[in-house]
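Here is the promised in-class demo. Please do not try to memorize the tokens; focus on the logic of going from shape to residues.
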């Protein structure tokens, strides 16, 4: 199995995703502003080039994983960007989490130049990226979705075609808004139980078998010591950062304004994460919101 893949954006998520493509036998050229990340991909069997757009010009597939909408728009739409450099027939896959409106804008520009493009944000965190078990929420044509399968299947386990361009980002925005709300609600409930003298492990076990059960309670418990594998038991290191959750809740709020939707809990969650970030917790895992709701022990 071989294909010329260019992967731009080798951060905490992008690097292990690109490494999984290398493991699968694809020829992967990796690019990032951080040289150490590029070096890690090369050590894993990938390659790189000094000029990323020269690499794009030869690629059959271009995959990007960037921080925000402005970075995606700049990379794809710039005078010397991906759309100006890619060869005819190249498949474009953006795995960043950005505004649905931005995804539709870039996809429309790609279509005008004859390219198939997908917005394919992911869920599953760094552990899922490393294990190749990510969930992909994909927006774009069915033709492009089918063409992307050989690559997405080596990086993820659950791959869903959400609909037309922008649909993948819409699902991601909705999912992460709900995740932020659930994390705050779970933290509140555990805090209340602990204040009444409950053992948080016992409380969490009972609630996880009751109608309040949810992913944050069962898999990503925010109370230190309840789950050894959760970031809460590792001083909230690693995982999904507070500032990233704040960014995604901001995308939900922007989209709600654009569509006239009501998201009172989403807005409240964003405000709480904003306060938490400004208190210096921006780089901690988002489950550290537990500390904002009571004294850390």
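The designed amino acids, position by position:
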């Amino acid at each position: 199995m071989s294909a010329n893949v260019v992967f731009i954006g080798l951060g905490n998520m992008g690097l292990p995703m690109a490494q999984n493509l290398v493991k699968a036998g694809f020829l992967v050229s990796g690019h990032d502003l951080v040289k150490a990340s590029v070096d890690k991909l090369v050590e894993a069997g990938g390659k790189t080039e000094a000029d990323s757009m020269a690499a794009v010009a030869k690629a059959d597939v271009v995959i990007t994983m960037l921080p925000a909408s402005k970075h995606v728009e700049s990379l794809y739409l710039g005078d010397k960007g991906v759309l100006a450099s890619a060869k005819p027939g190249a498949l474009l896959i953006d795995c960043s989490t950005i505004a649905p409106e931005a995804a539709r804008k870039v996809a429309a520009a790609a279509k005008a130049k004859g390219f198939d493009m997908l917005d394919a944000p992911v869920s599953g965190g760094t552990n899922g990226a490393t294990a190749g078990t990510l969930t992909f929420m994909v927006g774009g044509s069915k033709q492009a979705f089918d063409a992307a399968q050989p690559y997405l299947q080596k990086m993820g386990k659950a791959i869903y075609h959400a609909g037309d361009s922008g649909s993948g980002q819409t699902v991601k925005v909705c999912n992460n808004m709900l995740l932020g709300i659930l994390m705050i609600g779970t933290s509140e409930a555990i805090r209340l139980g602990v204040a009444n003298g409950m053992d948080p492990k016992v409380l969490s076990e009972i609630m996880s078998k009751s109608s309040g059960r949810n992913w944050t309670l069962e898999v990503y418990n925010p109370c230190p010591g309840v789950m050894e594998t959760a970031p809460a038991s590792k001083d909230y290191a690693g995982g999904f950062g507070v500032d990233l959750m704040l960014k995604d809740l901001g995308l939900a709020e922007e989209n709600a304004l654009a569509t006239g939707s009501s998201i009172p809990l989403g807005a409240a969650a964003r405000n709480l994460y904003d306060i938490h970030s400004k208190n210096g917790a921006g780089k901690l895992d988002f489950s550290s919101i537990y500390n904002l709701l009571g004294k850390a022990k």
